[in-house]
């Protein structure tokens, strides 16, 4: 799918669907917060939520006192919704509109390898990468778009050159429509900067 078409798709989703009418909605992103707390990440560490959309993760990071939060999404509408929700607190966050997609939306080796390369270059030695994707038993599409499913092994093999796997879990996410989607969350530590 062309980038402009993808951007138009996501701008339309975030312009026309309330946050609680999308399958990924969580009022409290429990798993993401648990992973962040697991690593005792310093409050002044750079944290970037790629494909953050209008997630409530940024709200919780601000509440916990994190100072260098970045939220990146392809949709300006998504980020505008979060900024409105946060009010004055939005000025404490770095907002980036970019074509970087959530990992499971990357379906070609070229795009996946580019993502891995950016992670290798952007995450300093001993830095942490936390990824949430659809598992092998999860959906094959999200919001009408094709996705790539992962197992713990296939996810780990993508990052094995520069990262050590720390922990992977699967999670049953109940959507607002009372359906279940199976996700895989993996954390990695950067062991080498290329």
Notes on the protein architecture:
The protein is an alpha/beta fold and 194 residues long. It folds into two domains: 1-100, Rossmann fold (3-Layer(aba) Sandwich), CATH 3.40.50; 124-194, no CATH class. It is 32% helix and 26% strand. It is built from six helices and eight strands; from the N terminus they run ααβαβαβαβββαββ. The strands form three sheets. Strands 1-2-3 form a three-stranded parallel sheet.
Structure characteristics:
single chain; 194 residues; alpha/beta; Rossmann fold; 2 domains; three-stranded antiparallel β-sheet
Which helices and strands appear, and what pairs or packs with what?
Layout: H1 3-16, H2 30-38, E1 46-50, H3 57-63, E2 68-73, H4 76-86, E3 93-97, H5 109-122, E4 128-134, E5 141-142, E6 145-146, H6 152-159, E7 163-174, E8 180-190
Parallel strand pairs: 1-2, 2-3
Antiparallel strand pairs: 4-8, 5-6, 7-8
Helix pairs in contact: 1-4
How would you briefly describe this protein structure?
With 194 residues, the protein is an alpha/beta fold.
Question: Averaged pLDDT, please?
Answer: 91
CA-based shape: globular
Largest beta sheet: what is the strand line-up? 1-2-3
Oligomer designation: single chain
- Our count of domains comes out at 2
Helix run count? 6
**Quick one: how many beta strands?**
8
Kindly provide the name of the CATH class of the largest domain: Alpha Beta
Cα gyration radius (Å)? 16 Å
Q: Please report which band the strand proportion falls in: under 5%, 5-15%, 15-25%, 25-35%, 35-45% or over 45%.
A: 25-35%
| Biggest beta sheet attributes | 3 strands, parallel
Structural class: alpha/beta
Could you state the CATH homologous superfamily of the largest domain?
A: Vaccinia Virus protein VP39
Share in helix: 25-40%
Give the N-to-C terminal Cα separation: 30 Å
């Amino acid at each position: 799918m062309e980038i402009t078409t993808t951007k138009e798709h996501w701008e339309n989703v975030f312009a026309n669907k309330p946050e609680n009418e999308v399958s990924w909605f969580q009022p409290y992103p429990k798993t993401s917060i648990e992973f962040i707390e697991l690593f005792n990440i310093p409050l002044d560490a750079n944290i970037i939520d790629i494909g953050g959309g209008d997630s409530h993760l940024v709200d919780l990071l601000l509440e916990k006192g994190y100072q260098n939060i970045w939220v990146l999404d392809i949709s300006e509408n998504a980020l505008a919704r979060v900024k409105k929700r946060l009010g004055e607190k939005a000025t404490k966050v770095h907002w980036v509109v970019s074509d970087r997609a959530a990992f499971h939306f990357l379906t070609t080796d070229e795009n996946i390898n580019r993502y891995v390369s950016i992670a290798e270059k952007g995450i300093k030695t001993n830095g942490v990468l936390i990824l949430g994707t659809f598992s092998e038993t999860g959906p094959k599409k999200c919001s009408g778009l094709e996705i790539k499913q992962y197992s713990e092994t296939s996810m780990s093999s993508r990052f094995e050159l520069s990262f050590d796997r720390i922990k992977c879990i699967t999670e049953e996410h109940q959507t607002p429509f009372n359906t279940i989607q199976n996700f895989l969350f993996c954390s990695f530590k950067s062991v080498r900067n290329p």
